[in-house]
Amino acid sequence: MKFCPQCKRLMRPDRARGVWRCNACGTEVPLGTGVAVVHRTAPRGGVAVVESKTATLPKTDEVCPKCGNGEAYWVLRQTRGADEPETRIFECTRCGHKWREYQ
Ligand SMILES: [Zn+2]
Ligand SMILES: [Zn+2]
Predict the structure, then answer these.
(1) Least distant ligand from the CA of 4
(2) Looking at residue 64, what DSSP letter applies?
(3) Are 91 and 74 contacting, i.e. CB atoms less than 8 angstroms apart?
């Protein structure tokens, strides 16, 4: 979606000519500018999501059974029954291997 910079009405894409066209006042904007903005912001947003996810997860000095790394992220997983204990799921900070805590 794009709005006319002149009259603020909704513009329609004219793909044959490669422009956004405003039917109200005739203003045309190249299609490329709108698309480029989306492509520039998308990858940066994706990386930010991954970084915030790993940054907020708590770490513990659990040893990875796969690679022997001594540090792992952990999350609590709720079990279905209220009387069952919660299970801690570990994820190795080095190789990404996941395993669950044995009670
Ligand atoms: Zn217009
Ligand atoms: Zn590991």
Answers:
(1) 1
(2) P
(3) yes
Determine the average pLDDT of the residues in 43-51: 47
Neighbours of ion ligand 1 (CB under 5 A): 4, 6-7, 22, 24-25, 27
Q: What is the pTM of this model?
A: 0.43
Q: For the chain, which residues make up each domain, given as ranges? A: 1-53, 57-103
For residue 52, report the distance from its CA to the centre of ligand 1, in Å.
Answer: 40
Q: Does the active-site annotation cover 101? A: no
Fold observed for domain 57-103: N-terminal domain of TfIIb (2.20.25)
Assess whether 83 carries a catalytic annotation.
yes
Percent of the chain whose pLDDT exceeds 90? 47
Residue 48: Cβ-neighbour burial (10 angstroms; 0-12, 13-18, 19+): exposed
Distance CA 17, CA 69 (A): 57
